[in-house]
Specification:
The structure is a single chain. This protein is an alpha/beta fold. Helices cover 46% and strands 14% of the residues. Strands 1, 2, 3, 4, 5, 6, 7 and 8 form an eight-stranded mixed sheet that branches. Strands 9-10 form a two-stranded antiparallel ribbon. Helix 10 crosses helix 11. The radius of gyration is 23 Å and the shape is elongated. Bound molecules: guanosine-5',3'-tetraphosphate. Guanosine-5',3'-tetraphosphate (G4P) binds next to helix 6.
Length: 305
């Protein structure tokens, strides 16, 4: 066996291992790196005063990393649910209450269309004032409050940073005593933001968590079985939002999911070699869902968790 054949065999073995892994956890987006990320966040935590934890309002449970509590220790935190414009507010508000009952400060926001972020600033101000009161009680001078934004990919962390900082943003750069490579952005005279958000990997604990994440966020589609995800989307819509499905694709009978795919394929002309191209139909379903063309939906449900 020559070196190329050996290499090919090794690669095939690796691919098989990877496929098994993907099957085992459903949809594997974030292999590895977790330990490094956790270490980095733990290091940053000591430099900050407050955390803005960002989750997606359409999947308020699946997009929330459960390890965050131990990572951020007792730092004050505001839970920010983004994409209000895309969620089913009735269901999402139940999740908001659920988190509030657990003691979280929660805000539901539309980062693309809300004219201002006063609700966020007002909560930040309250926490900042409390922190400075505590400092004063200890005989320390008040100082700027440093904020870290945390969350899994695609929940809107960068959008939030840009909105909070606005056009006036000035990068205050590194300061003596602060770990190298960390840049602080000035929000205003008394607030500073760490320029890079902490990225957490979602924990794919249950089958629905992985599928909910796959449904709502576009990440690493090459290792994600689009067809499996689009079938899940159709099943979920059939269960909770049948009218959206009927209206969007003009379908009357929602009994048989493969038939729905077939009907959508024929309607949108996703046909290759005289057969409905399931890959194309799946792409359209995913796109329609993520852009909100199917309607405002929330996929996380209490009864499933
Ligand atoms: P991340 O840093 O957490 O990874 O997320 P990012 O801010 O990049 O946001 C991910 C996508 O979600 C972006 O869309 C962003 O515009 C969108 N987004 C964030 N917040 C909201 C919101 O409240 N409502 C809606 N409708 N969308 C929101 P994109 O299409 O991936 O990128 P872009 O083309 O908008 O830049």
């Amino acid at each position: 066996m020559d070196i190329y054949q050996k290499r090919k065999m090794r690669q095939e073995k690796k691919n098989n291992q990877q496929n098994n892994e993907v099957e085992k956890i459903g949809i594997n987006w974030y292999p590895g790196h977790m330990a490094k990320t956790k270490r980095e966040i733990s290091e940053k935590i000591n430099l900050i005063d407050m955390v803005l934890e960002v989750i997606d309002a359409r999947i308020p449970l699946s997009s929330k990393n459960k390890e965050i509590d131990s990572l951020i220790k007792n730092k004050p935190r505001i839970l920010i649910m983004t994409k209000k414009d895309l969620c089913d507010e009735q269901i999402t508000n139940n999740w908001k209450k659920y988190y509030e009952e657990k003691g979280y400060q929660v805000l539901l926001v539309d980062l693309l269309h809300d004219k201002n972020l006063n609700s966020i600033f007002s909560k930040i101000d309250t926490i900042a004032q409390e922190l400075n009161k505590k400092r004063q009680a200890k005989g320390l001078k008040p100082r700027k409050t440093r904020i870290l934004i945390l969350g899994i990919p695609n929940v809107g962390k960068s959008t939030l940073i840009n909105r909070l900082v606005g056009k006036k943003a000035t990068n205050v750069g590194n300061k003596p005593g602060i770990t190298k490579n960390l840049e602080w952005i000035r929000i205003n005279a008394y607030l500073e933001l760490l320029d890079t958000p902490g990225i957490l990997w979602p924990k794919l604990e249950g089958k629905n968590t992985a599928l909910n994440l796959a449904s709502m966020t576009a990440i690493k589609e090459e290792i994600l079985n689009k067809e499996q995800v689009s079938i899940y989307i159709l099943e979920t819509l059939k269960k909770y939002y049948p009218e959206f499905l009927k209206q969007r694709y003009q379908i009357e009978n929602l009994e048989d999911t493969p038939k729905i795919i077939d009907t959508i394929g024929k309607k949108i002309g996703a046909i290759s070699k005289n057969e409905v191209d399931i890959e194309k139909v799946s792409t359209i379903i995913l796109k329609d869902l993520r852009e909100g063309s199917l309607g405002k939906v929330t996929f996380d449900r209490f009864e499933q968790n």
